[in-house]
Amino acid sequence: MFGRKSPEKVVTRFAPSPTGFMHVGGVRTALFAYLFARKHKGTFILRIEDTDRERLVPGATEHIMKTLHWAGISWDIGPDTPAAENPFGSVIQSERLSIYHEYAQKLIEKGLAYPDPYTQAELEAFREDAKREHRPFLYRDHRPKTFETWDGTKPLRLKVENPRRMEWYDEVRGELEAGPEVVDDIILIKADGFPTYNFAHIVDDHQMGVTHIMRADEFIASTPKFLTIYEALDIVPPKFVTLPPILRADRKKKMGKRDGAQDALDYRSEGYLAAAVVNFLALTGWNPGTDQEIFTMDELIETFALDGIQSGGAMLNEEKLEWMNREHMLKLSPQEYRAFVHAFIPERLLKLPQWSEERFDALLPSVRERISTAGEFRDHAEEGEYDYCFAPIILDPTLLKWKKDESAIDALPRLRYCAEILAALPENVDRETVEATIMPYAEEVGRGEVLWPLRVALSGRERSVDPFTLIALLGTAEAYKRVLYASDMLRK
RNA sequence: GGCCCUAUCGUCUAGCGGUUAGGACGCCAGGUUUUCAUCCUGGAAAUCGGAGUUCGAUUCUCCGUAGGGUCACCA
Questions:
Q1: Is residue A392 part of a domain?
Q2: Are A81 and A226 in a shared domain?
Q3: What is the pLDDT of residues A357-378, one digit of tens each?
Q4: Which pTM does this prediction carry?
Q5: Is the CB of A155 under 7 A from strand B?
Q6: Which chain B nucleotides are covered by protein, judged by CB under 7 A?
Q7: Using CA atoms, how far apart are residues A422 and A439, in angstroms rounded to an integer?
Q8: Distance, Å, A409 CA → B35 C1'
Q9: What is the pLDDT of residues A398-411, one digit of tens each?
Q10: How close are the terminal C-alpha atoms of chain A, in Å?
């Protein structure tokens, strides 16, 4: 029986391959490992598995770190940890080659590893045969009788002495097992001198004292192979924690980069709060066992437990994410809200040269002032009912371009929208430019969206958010009341 | 094809032999809000199929079915 160990200090890791951006599945895997480590006051390691030199993407490591940082997932030891402070020297696999070779040498000395004499073409032929005969391909059926000395130019394979049924325990799935037909002489070190994932992750996890391996369920099938390596190295395996897959919306396949999965960081530019995305991902594949749905990161750390992890796969419920985003948005203080808006606006402002960030900042006080000093309309509100009033100044009916058979009520949404925008504009902005910019947009958006400050200001999934809208609606929750009041003024 | 995993409302899920099968998102209806966000109330909506174990199965076992994973010098 593998996979059971006595209690000790928890060490988890997230070990991505720097081959591109992270999708939400990766973020969730990292999150669970992070939550578990923090929950138990343990250590969370970010390890970079860059042993595939072909698929390596420059900058990917930095992008992964950026994504995790955004999500609020911090690591104790990572690729950015100075060597002097890193107990393992480096957590980047390409910088740890001598360690893998050292372990490989042990296996060679024990007679448990040998060089693979075949060419790729020969191997391919073997596979073809197996496929034709409808049986799984097993390298060990072709294992050479005698072994050459490994000179490092050929792949090094594990010699599985006695292939047998393997059983192990998974913290989520329970007792698992698979027959000897999945155990094979897998490659430990590739011809280029780099270790395979299969070998490197085991050496690393052992050397770094990892106690729990969180990973998605595609690794269940290869766990028996891993177990033969643990056995050959005489290493007691960590605990296995298998996470359920995140499925594509059509439920046909597991989510993956090649299936249109998006960069998780896109959620940020689309106006989602990291807190909402984290909350959402935590709850797909895990549940606290209570009815609580909205969690802060601290609450997740406090509540997280392995026995709440699901077995079955889950599809992402985008509408629920939207809802969570709203909930988290409403928890923000005005300062936090403003900081959030500023955090993602600049990218969009850059698309409109005349609206530099400085200009945007300069506008804010002006908008605020207009709103708070619109006293002449305040008299119309019942006392104390509204904190703010809004002055629908400069409203020029010709700007609205009424359709002939359109009633005033129907036009109201546009009316409100324009009023908001116009009120926010400085006097020196050219009226025609404003009109050209606003009108198509006002036509497009629904009234509900116009009046839903959080949504309008922060969405932008299909169209870009324009700075006018952001300015006009910066007041968040108060904006709604202001607009309601203003619209009433307009009706009279 | 072999091996492995999974299966409760449309979606995320609770349930760990006896429940009117609970919650959330979304949806529908009504009420607040000087229509539309928020908020409140109510509603429709699920145990994949078949055997077996048991006094009793959503729950345990087996067989189907469906979906997913895996069988790389990718991770």
A1: yes
A2: yes
A3: 343 344 333 333 333 333 322 3
A4: 0.77
A5: yes
A6: 1-8, 10-15, 22-26, 34-38, 67-75
A7: 12
A8: 10
A9: 222 223 233 333 33
A10: 80
> Which residues from 452-481 of A have any strand B atom under 7 Å from their CB?
452, 454-455, 477, 480
- Alpha-carbon dihedral of residues A249, A254, A259, A265, nearest 10 degrees? 80
ipTM of the complex as predicted: 0.95
The active-site residue, picked from A159, A257, A331, A481, is A257
Phi then psi dihedrals of residue A220, to 5 deg: -60, -45
Residues A357 and A243 in one domain: no
pLDDT band at A335 (very low <50, low <70, confident <90, very high): low
C1' of nucleotide B4: residue with nearest CA: A221
Could you tell me which residues are beta bridge partners of residue A254? A247
pLDDT of A53 higher than 50:
yes
C1’ B22 / CA A21, Å: 39
Q: Strand pairing partners for A158?
A: A113
A312: Cα separation from own chain's centroid = 20
| Residue A222 and residue A367 share a domain | no
β-bridge partners, A43: A11
Mean pLDDT confidence for A453-467:
28
What is the predicted pLDDT for the residue at A418?
44
> How many domains are contained in chain A?
2
Residues 58-87 of A with CB under 7 A from strand B: none
In this prediction, residues A447-453 reach a mean pLDDT of: 29
Q: Where is the domain boundary, A214, A247, A280?
A: A247
Residue A14 corresponds to which tokens in the numbers above?
């997230």
Q: Confirm or deny that A106 is annotated as ligand binding.
A: no
Q: How far apart are CA A182 and CA A241, in angstroms?
A: 20
Verify whether residue A257 is a known catalytic residue: yes
Which of A174, A210, A185 lies closest to A9 in space, CA to CA? Answer: A210
Q: Is the CB of A388 under 7 A from strand B?
A: no
On whether both A239 and A345 belong to a single domain, the answer is: no
Given A247, A276, A293, the domain boundary residue is A247
Query: DSSP string of A311-348?
Result: SS-EE--HHHHHHHHHHHHHTS-HHHHHHHHHHHHHHH
Residues whose CB falls within 8 Å of the CB of residue A355, separated by 6 or more in sequence, listed in order: A349, A467
pLDDT band at A135 (very low <50, low <70, confident <90, very high): confident
Tell me the residue range of the domain where A205 lies.
Answer: 11-247
Which nucleotide lies at the shortest CA–C1' distance from A182? B3
Nearest nucleotide to the CA of A165, by C1', is B3
Q: Is the CB of A314 under 7 A from strand B?
A: yes
Same domain, A243 and A341: no
- Rounded CA–C1' distance between A237 and B75, in angstroms: 19
Query: Which domain CATH number covers A57?
Result: 3.40.50.620
A60 belongs to a structural domain:
yes
Q: Which tokens belong to A223?
A: 């766990």
**Residue A381: strand, helix, or coil:** coil
